[in-house]
Amino acid sequence: MAASMERFSLWLTLLETAMQTPSPHNVQPWRIRLVSEREAELYIDGNRTLPKEDVTGSFILSAMGMFIEAIALLAAPRGFKLEYELSHPPQWYAETILHDIRTDLLPFARLQLSSGSPRENPYPESLFIKRRTSRINFLPTPIGETASTTLAELATRWGQQYKQIVDPEEIENILAHNIDALFQDLNTLAYHDEIVSWFRFTDRAAKRHRDGLDWRCMNTSRTAFWLAARIPRLMLFPVTRSLLRRQYRRQLGLVPTIGILAGEFFRAASAFETGRFLIRFWLETAKLGLFIHPYGNLVTNPAAAKWMAETTNIKDIWLVFKIGYSEVPPKSYRRSLAEVLVS
């Protein structure tokens, strides 16, 4: 078996690192079939989509865009260019796949590596390992103007906007709305059942699945994590709601800066291309020594999304996150290469 895989050594090397690409709830929706030394087939795993939360399919499509762009970035300094052809238009996946009950492998793209001259990759492989979501307490160190400008210019080059909010009162208002949206969503049956299926409550479960929302990375106790999943009604009763709101706010820790990305996203073709930008943006934050933690409910909850747009006067917001410096946070597990490969 090892001998038969030797001819795929380039693919295996690229994929080992590309699999560190982030995805919503760490679902890792990609599967790969290696066809030859230079060709591969990329699939969406129908068991790893989020139709009840990602109601436009945009976040899964952006994850696929991130994964493809990660392979391209890693191939460049080795003297290879990644070319790809989607099996269907992105809208087909959003309408036909992500909202149907499908558990099979869904052909997504044909990948091909073509030889060329080695090209510089602005994001060394080490950044793919360094990059991670940080839910732990951030440091009070402000983000410097150089870092802010770098991120804003990168977004502009990809047709996006990057904005920052640093006013403490505005930040607290945003965090309060995030908590309210989360509590509301966890008490919506379809949303609740889908997200809780990705909760990993113990070390044993986290290591067995190597995906999902690992309690180690959530900056909370296993008890609180379990209660949120099993008795979300506690978030609705006045007394327990107040207690849980305060607890969750403490869990978020110090938030010196809120970052916002806005632009074309909630259209299938835009989501895929924006994913290619997002992996670069996330790697750029790692390069700058920064960490982020997305607040997804502020864009997927309709009332919260409307409030964000009106409050910030920013159109087409698709990602809201805390951003700053922190100690090194725990890293989510990833599935093994053997689990991702299709025989």
Characterize the structure shown.
Helix content is 45%, strand content 16%. With 343 residues, the chain is α+β, with helices and mostly antiparallel strands. The chain folds into two domains: 2-126 and 334-340, NADH Oxidase (3-Layer(aba) Sandwich), CATH 3.40.109.10; 131-324, 3-Layer(aba) Sandwich (NADH Oxidase), CATH 3.40.109. The strands form three sheets. Strands 1-2-4-3 form a four-stranded antiparallel β-sheet, covered by helices on one side. Strands 5-8-10-9 form a four-stranded antiparallel β-sheet, sandwiched between helices. It starts with a helix and ends with a helix. 39% of the residues are buried.
Using only CA atoms, what is the Rg?
20 Å
Average pLDDT confidence is 95
CATH class of the largest domain: Alpha Beta
The DSSP helix count reads: 15
Short synopsis of the structure:
The protein has 343 residues and is of the alpha+beta class. Helices cover 45% and strands 16% of the residues. The protein has helices at 2-5, 9-18, 58-75, 90-97, 125-130, 145-157, 168-186, 189-196, 203-209, 222-230, 238-252, 268-287, 297-300, 302-312, 337-340, and strands at residues 30-34, 39-45, 80-86, 105-115, 161-165, 199-200, 213-214, 258-262, 291-294, 317-324.
